[in-house]
Amino acid sequence: MKGLDHLEHLDKELVDELAQVARETVRDELREQTRRQRRTATLYAASGAVALYAGAAVALAVGLALAIGLPGWAAALVTAVILGAAAYALREAARPSASHPTPGHGTGAHATGATGAAGRATVAPGGAAGAAYPPTPPVPPAPPAGMPRPDHPGEDPGPQHRA
Question: What is the pTM of this model?
């Protein structure tokens, strides 16, 4: 039996060594993936910054072209309106409700501008149809068989409660 105790010690060392190798392998793989993702994120950020400057140059060119026939302030105003309309159109295109209208769209709390998280209408319990909560039932549910209804205290409870 003493030989088996020696083997258990070897098994423990082998398990510890394998766990250490697995940890190092996973750590190295995560470092490599992080390095690649960091490089990709940096390139996307640089691309976005360059696109921002390109958009500013296009806006300036539009303003200067309009300034040929209009005063400078009017050309700037028209350019701002064009950019505002483009921003509004892009925002509307990005909204999930633009392509999938929700039930009751344009009615209830949503029409008045009361919205909660993710632009969903917030309505108190018992609200109108199409609300965020189901409507309150018009009558309370019936009590279990043999129990008197709370709104009819003098009613006979049934054969189970007779002595």
Answer: 0.39
